[in-house]
Specification:
two-stranded antiparallel ribbon; globular; about 110 residues; alpha/beta
């Protein structure tokens, strides 16, 4: 989602902050690594958990959709670390709906 155009509209006064995401599709990424905050039923594909509920509430209030456009990640693949996962997530999706510990290395990314 290109939020730069939406930000420009907001700065010009063409849209209010409250309506800034109305009608858009946001592409979030969730950590699917067993935290308990994001739970996917492996048989049905149904997702639930605190982070899913939060996204649903935000989407309802702000008027955007996300359930048809989300991604997930697990633990880092061999040769990669959590900083690599954080960087990939931030560069590939609109919002990272998970947490990463704040480190000096990540602050420099």
């Amino acid at each position: 989602t290109n939020v730069c155009d939406l930000n420009s509209k907001y700065i010009r006064g063409d849209i209010t902050l409250r309506d800034g995401l109305k009608g858009t599709t946001i592409n979030p990424v969730f950590g699917d690594w067993g935290s308990g905050f994001f739970i996917r039923d492996r048989e049905t594909g149904k997702i639930e958990g605190l982070l899913v509920e939060m996204m649903d509430i935000l989407a309802d209030r702000a008027g955007f959709t996300w359930r048809d456009s989300y991604g997930t990640y697990g633990t880092p693949p061999e040769g990669k670390d959590w900083s690599d996962v954080a960087l990939w997530s931030a560069n590939s999706y609109d919002v990272v709906v998970d947490y990463f510990y704040r480190t000096t290395e990540r602050l420099g990314l």
